[in-house]
Amino acid sequence: MSQNSSRAVGRHFLHIPGPTPLPDRILRAMDTPIIDHRGPELQKLAKRVLEGIKTIFKTSHPVIIYTATGTGAWEAALVNTLSPGDKVLMVETGQFATLWKNMAVKLGLNPEFIPTDWRIGADPAVIEEHLRKDKAHEIKAVCVLHNETATGCLSPIAAIRKAIDAAGHPALFLVDTISSLASTDYRHDEWGVDVTVGGAQKGLMLPPGMSFNALSEKALAASKSSQLTKSFWSWDDMLNMNKIGFFPYTPATQMLHGLATAIDMLHEEGLDNVFARHDRLAEATRRAVRAWGLEIMCRDAKYYSPTVTAVMLPEGHDADAFRNLALDSYNISYGASFGRYAGKYFRIGHLGDINEAMLLGGLSVTEMALALGGIPHKKGGAQAAMDYLVSAAASPSRAAAE
Ligand code: PLP
To answer: Which protein residues are within 6 Å of ligand 1, measured from CB?
Structure first.
């Protein structure tokens, strides 16, 4: 505990839904001398990561790597494919969807924003209904977050693709996977996504500061006629330079070293094992929350997020005060709450390089912080998580079906 000391002892428990703690192996991979960004070593590294990252997005098409946070890759996806005044269909799953919508407005686009109560994912049937009404095909893109980090709701991307097709609508399909990529199944090509936006600092276990656009043929064709102003974000210059293993500007070389190692680590574990681990730890977390008698923000199980669980506090209890108390007392950080729910919930991130012991440490001190903070709850959440994780280890298929 750090209560009586100015030094926080031991490792900080970073249980926010990204940035996630870095594996030591990635830290070591980045702890290396700076190389010439126009030399042969960089060229070899760039070719390796530009190919490797395709296996994470599950695409055979180019993936652009930006030296920018996820917000930059959001902008890149819009400015490379669309023109001023274009209508885009977006779903208000929560804070991050709202920020992307606000960006679209600032860029001169015209978003149609499907509302929700922030407690579910994007519903394919509702998207289909909106597209069917758009007989003139004024909507040029459907933009959806795979995982709404602000609420812990996952949207069914393959089903949304089917809904777009069922409506016979030609809109582009743009998907944000910033808090789902490399944590849950995602198939850029198979699911017919035109631009997938990704970020480094979550499932990829890297520091913030790198982001991605995975492309499709249709997105590349759209970029030829797109009229929104772009310079740094332009795919053209990137693709030309990437072909020979370079970037149009100085890339974040240390991040590229880290990315190469992250890709290796994900494949050494096996992507399906990575996804199963996230599912298992997410289910353990939800069982802890239910055992505490607290409410999970995502109100429909079909939208449960494998990477983050938002926990509502009982009426009259301030979630921000609770987060501060937990930080001061047990050196653990949770994700904050947003918008109309500000102060009403906190988020437990369970993504990236995390295992059972790390999760249980986090859940155990969360239970202690609930007690310390006088938050009405039942004991036994950490125990419920342990029971589930033991049953999952003893019989993985039964635990998955439970
Ligand atoms: N989209 C989602 C789903 C996010 O979770 C975030 C950040 O957490 C962003 C976009 C914005 O990314 P960044 O903060 O890296 O710019």
So the answer is: 18, 69-71, 96, 145, 149, 176, 178-179, 199, 208
